[in-house]
Amino acid sequence: NAGVTQTPKFQVLKTGQSMTLQCAQDMNHEYMSWYRQDPGMGLRLIHYSVGAGITDQGEVPNGYNVSRSTTEDFPLRLLSAAPSQTSVYFCASSLRDRGAHGYTFGSGTRLTVV
Amino acid sequence: DAKTTQPPSMDCAEGRAANLPCNHSTISGNEYVYWYRQIHSQGPQYIIHGLKNNETNEMASLIITEDRKSSTLILPHATLRDTAVYYCIVSNSGGSNYKLTFGKGTLLTVNP
Q1: Strands (DSSP E) along B1-112, which ranges?
Q2: Quick check: B76 contacting A, CB < 8 Å?
Q3: pLDDT tens for each residue of B80-100
Q4: What is the pLDDT of residue B97?
Q5: Residue B43 to residue A4, Cβ atoms within 8 A
């Protein structure tokens, strides 16, 4: 069991570039989420999904798109990167019947936009 | 979800119990208290959760006051590896509970 796998671990983008942060889980979890964490702050929810084909916005969705075509994968797309999107991004997944106490987090993607 | 208040930092000596407080005075009857921790910028890790009874697992104990307006996470014998940011989260654990709202948490530093 690999758990939640995020790629890449590090990325530097230029302003205006686009990219996709990958997240995959092999635990057959229904729930998947993307969070960002800025220095000295807690995690803030960007987008989440309760199952394949279903996504919704979290607290800070602007500038990001998601899709959930399979149970396993939940990619996060940055459409036109801005310096304000410099952050650490975490993906998480959970079984529906475990909810908030069952979340498994990935190890994060550290993104710098210059 | 109810808001939580935690001290920004705490120190603890290695081998002693670490008691991390959390205030959640606006908690509603169907909301649970969850604790996660984040070690050195890794992804957060679930520790324990409870509704109104005290809970214990292999990692920690959770003490919830009778009025449920506050709680304390107890690490009985803290080690250096317990140095981390600890997050207290209040959320409804119903079928629609898939969103965790993190505050800034408490940075626990365990000293040798």
Answers
A1: 9-13, 18-23, 31-38, 45-50, 55-56, 61-64, 70-75, 84-92, 106-111
A2: no
A3: 999 999 999 998 765 555 678
A4: 57
A5: yes
A96 chain-B contacts, CB cut-off 8 A: 95, 98
Q: Between chains, do A100 and B97 touch, taking CB under 8 Å as contact?
A: yes
Q: Which two tokens stand for residue A9?
A: 């671990």
B42-86 confidence digits (pLDDT tens): 999 999 999 998 999 999 999 999 999 999 999 999 999 999 999
A46-70 exposure pattern, b = at least 16 Cβ within 10 A, e = fewer: bbbbbebeebeebebbeebebbbee
Residue range A78-92, pLDDT digits in tens: 999 999 999 999 999
Contact A101 B100 (CB under 8 A): no
Q: What is the pLDDT of residue A42?
A: 85
- The answer to whether the Cβ–Cβ distance between B89 and A100 falls below 8 Å is yes
For residues B91 and B100, the answer to whether their CB atoms sit within 8 Å is yes
Please list every residue in chain B whose beta carbon sits closer than 8 Å to the beta carbon of residue A43. 44, 100, 102
CB B41 within 8 A of CB B12: no
- Closest residue in chain A to residue B101, using alpha carbons only: A44
